[in-house]
UniProtKB/TrEMBL annotation:
Keywords: Hydrolase, Protease, Thiol protease
GO biological process: proteolysis
UniProt-recorded Gene Ontology molecular function terms: cysteine-type peptidase activity
Keyword set includes Hydrolase: yes
Protein name: NlpC/P60 domain-containing protein
Keyword Transmembrane set for record: no
Family stated for the protein in its record: Belongs to the peptidase C40 family.
Record-annotated NlpC/P60 domain positions: 50-171
InterPro entries cross-referenced by the UniProt entry: NLP_P60_dom, Papain-like_cys_pep_sf, Peptidase_C40
Highest taxon in the source lineage: Bacteria
PANTHER family linked to this entry: MUREIN DD-ENDOPEPTIDASE MEPH-RELATED
């Protein structure tokens, strides 16, 4: 009888272990999808309006999919966040600082409600700053981080929304 209880006990433990593992896998999957919920899947076209800021954004959008590369600012080598902005503005003959810290102070400060295509959105991530270009419908274009690529994301996602610290207009 001791042996029967032992097998029965082992089966119960195995069943519980399976349930725990499945639950953890489910939570991990749910956690990943929540973390990445700010990424816009599929391509929804940006509605350009022909303004200088819109033209800068359109140029930067041509780099969607290019790799993130720290300290770089070119289509052939890739981009970091400030490098993408620097390159896009420079392509239109408009001077903008190269470093994120300097971009966060460039031009004039504007309210989120006044942000237009091509304006710079500034985020604070820990002690570091991150920049992107305002697109339409609450989206922004940026080069996120190592191992990633230039992409559109929602400013209103759970990750980005609480990290927005300001908006800057370079062309006015």
């Amino acid at each position: 009888m001791h042996e029967v209880l032992s097998k029965s006990y082992q089966q119960k433990v195995l069943c519980i272990a399976r349930l725990v593992i499945l639950s953890l896998l489910f939570l991990l999957q749910a956690g990943c999808s929540i973390f990445n919920s700010s990424t816009i899947s599929g391509y929804v076209p940006v509605e350009y309006d022909g303004t200088p800021g819109s033209n800068v954004l359109e140029t930067a959008m041509s780099q969607i999919g290019k790799k993130y590369s720290y300290g770089k600012a070119s289509p052939s080598q890739g981009f970091d966040c400030s490098g993408l902005i620097y390159w896009a503005y420079q392509s239109h003959g408009i001077a903008v600082p190269r470093r994120t810290q300097d971009q966060s102070k460039a031009g004039i400060r504007i309210k989120k409600a006044d942000a237009k295509l091509g304006d710079i959105v500034v985020f604070k991530i820990g002690r570091r700053l991150h920049t992107g270009l305002v697109a339409d419908k609450g989206r922004f274009l940026h080069a996120p981080s190592s191992g990633s690529h230039v992409r559109l994301e929602s400013m209103n996602g759970v990750y980005w929304k609480p990290r927005v610290v300001g908006f800057r207009r370079i062309i006015y």
